[in-house]
Amino acid sequence: xxxxxxxxxxxxxxxxxxxxxxxxxxxxxxxxxxxxxxxxxxxxxxxxxxxxxxxxxxxxxxxxxxxxxxxxxxxxxxxxxxxxxxxxxxxxxxxxxxxxxxxxxxxxxxxxxxxxxxxxxxxxxxxxxxxxxxxxxxxxxxxxxxxxxxxxxxxxxxxxxxxxxxxxxxxxxxxxxxxxxxxxxxxxxxxxxxxxxxxxxxxxxxxxxxxxxxxxxxxxxxxxxxxxxxxxxxxxxxxxxxxxxxxxxxxxxxxxxxxxxxxxxxxxxxxxxxxxxxxxxxxxxxxxxxxxxxxxxxxxxxxxxxxxxxxxxxxxxxxxxxxxxxxxxxxxxxx
Length: 335
Ligand code: AHM
Ligand code: MG
Fold this sequence. Notes:
Elements: H1 8-16, H2 25-45, E1 55-59, E2 65-67, H3 68-83, E3 89-92, E4 99-100, E5 112-120, E6 131-139, H4 150-153, E7 162-168, E8 172-177, E9 182-188, E10 193-198, E11 209-211, H5 222-232, E12 241-242, H6 248-258, E13 260-264, H7 277-290, E14 293-296, E15 316-320, H8 321-333
Parallel strand pairs: 3-5, 11-12, 11-13
Antiparallel strand pairs: 1-2, 3-4, 5-6, 6-7, 7-8, 8-9, 9-10, 13-15, 14-15
Helix pairs in contact: 1-2, 2-3, 5-8
This protein binds 2,5-anhydro-1,6-di-O-phosphono-D-mannitol and magnesium ion (MG).
């Protein structure tokens, strides 16, 4: 069969047997995410048409205003995962604490936990700019048959079994890895089917795009300031092009296709930057490494950081391998 005619559903089945611990559970879980993605996609696409925009008046645990679509996306993903009884626990950017899921008939028998950022870049919704969903999947570490605990969620990123994102962009794509490369699927909205459009995605080894919120320049550490100046210097393939959407999923997606680096460093006003380790940086880092790219906190591999809190933040440098290494050189020079 022409690979490009492969649907996501077919791809999941075909690849189930090649997955080391395959029991079908992970396939069901990715299928549930596929379904929730289509529902959220439908809502995101009609956001400008109906009275669904704007804040709901709540703030989440990080003190940020929640947008209606954040709440809706959060509900859809959690409901879908709960209803299908395929996970034992869920943590979300929009929930203060993790959720323990108990199937009706069998007590706590599922082995996977999911961490999600249901709608990342949500400050972009009101202005019709791409947003995304990020997900990360682990095997629980506590005993099956008991409720999940925080320990199940505070695992280093290297333990991830699968991770991915959905980008609600000019077209909607679901991109994911189960540790055997990265594949991208584009939604045909007419029939509601994802097709394999980007098999074996890889970051170019280097690139000419840097993505950072330069408005924060004054607050950045000296190593980051020096790296930005390096990007802007006229030499060889530089100055680089600056591209920053403010939507991590979209910035990452573009950089993976074209070659580039994304930076969200710490600053004098945010000691660990902004992005969350568990449901933003770890899944993106897993994807980056699976796509021949690199992800670091400026000094060390993101995937090896031992988390201590559900919503902890971490500086994030991610993208084409050589570019991340160069940024790390500048950081090390100022350490
Ligand atoms: P969010 O989870 O509240 O949407 O924040 C995460 C987003 C990322 O998608 C994006 O890269 C970053 O925040 C932009 O932040 P800033 O506006 O500070 O540059
Ligand atoms: Mg987010």
